[in-house]
Design a protein that fits this description.
Strand content: 15-25%
Distance between the termini: 19 Å
Number of strands: 12
Order of helices and strands: HHEEEHEEHEEHHHEHEHEHEEHH
Bound molecules: adenosine-5'-triphosphate
């Protein structure tokens, strides 16, 4: 994990709006420049406010090298549901979720949200309704306030403060002499991995999207940090359709359903209770933990 290219980090970059002229913007541009462009279809319209019923219908996908990565995926996600995607490295979890914000388009089949094909919506109106928290959080050289406000340009001070609290950043900000005015990054205070993740969570609280994609950290965090991030993420997921690439057992057990993927296919799907008793791969993995 994390050894090779991780599309979700790039999606997270693509999906947020870029304040122009801020330090670090260039890096984003470079990141974006490496990715294929997906254009709006000529008759695309702005998506209405989405409830988040996501359907994958016979979705297959191959990267440019032509190697098939996803095979004929059928999956219906209920609005507000939390799904945990598990499976070995390379199974296609990241790739599948990368199709939702149209970072790539399926090579066959289609994806709909609330019955509307993704291809019928403008990419901007779609991505505005998807929040992403990936493993690598990008902070630009600026204040904490600016870094959080990046979740939704034009947010008020009160909204920024509330998002910071919701993301469990309150105590950290209170402990900094300059609070939200603290400059972070290379020229300022270096944040820990866990603190950076909470900044990313605060951005998504501010954005308030109906759909959430989470790439759970695989790196070891101390118990305290993990608990703080977990409770912030749990709060974030409430009332949103949430798709998680899950690595932690607690996340997996608490998901409404678990989707087991192997070699580009869904091999099992069900609640923890259902799968644990099914005698399948999940049951074996679960027994081994
Ligand atoms: P992990 O848990 O390690 O992140 P994953 O289940 O998320 O794994 P993906 O990252 O979706 O799996 O990878 C699925 C397959 O697609 C792998 O064989 C991977 O090498 C390949 N792949 C991923 N990104 C690209 C890319 N940009 N170009 C070509 N192949 C890619």
């Amino acid at each position: 994990v994390g050894v090779f290219f991780r599309p979700l980090d790039k999606i997270a970059a693509v999906i947020e709006t870029y304040p122009r002229g801020i330090a670090g913007f260039r890096r984003y541009q470079e990141l974006l420049a490496t990715e294929p462009e997906i254009a709006d279809s000529p008759d695309a319209v702005a998506a209405p406010p989405l409830r988040g019923a996501i359907r994958f219908e016979g979705v297959s996908f191959a990267y440019d090298d032509g190697r098939p990565t996803l095979h004929d995926i059928d999956l219906a996600v209920r609005p507000g549901e939390t799904l945990a995607f598990v499976g070995p490295s390379g199974a296609g979890k990241t790739t599948l979720l990368a199709l939702v914000p149209r970072f790539y388009d399926p090579t066959a089949g289609r994806i709909t949200i609330d019955g509307l094909p993704l291809a019928a919506m403008t990419i901007q109106s779609l991505r505005r309704q998807i929040g992403i928290v990936s493993q690598d959080v990008f902070l630009f050289g600026g204040t904490l306030r600016e870094n959080i406000a990046y979740g939704r340009l034009g947010a008020t001070e009160a909204e920024i403060v509330r998002a910071a609290k919701q993301a469990q950043l309150g105590p950290m900000i209170a402990a900094l002499p300059e609070g939200l005015d603290t400059v972070v990054g290379e020229r300022g205070v270096m944040l820990s991995g866990g603190q950076k993740q909470r900044v990313a969570i605060a951005r998504v609280f501010l954005k308030n999207p109906p759909i959430l994609i989470l790439d759970e950290a695989t790196s070891a965090l101390d118990t305290e940090t993990e608990r703080e991030i977990q409770s912030a993420l749990d709060a974030l997921a409430v009332g949103r359709t949430t798709l998680i690439i899950a690595h932690r057992l607690a996340t997996i057990r608490h998901a409404d359903r678990i989707v087991v993927m192997e070699a580009g296919r869904i091999t099992e799907i069900g609640s923890h209770g259902e799968l644990a008793g099914s005698g399948g791969r999940y049951a074996r993995l679960n027994a081994a933990v």
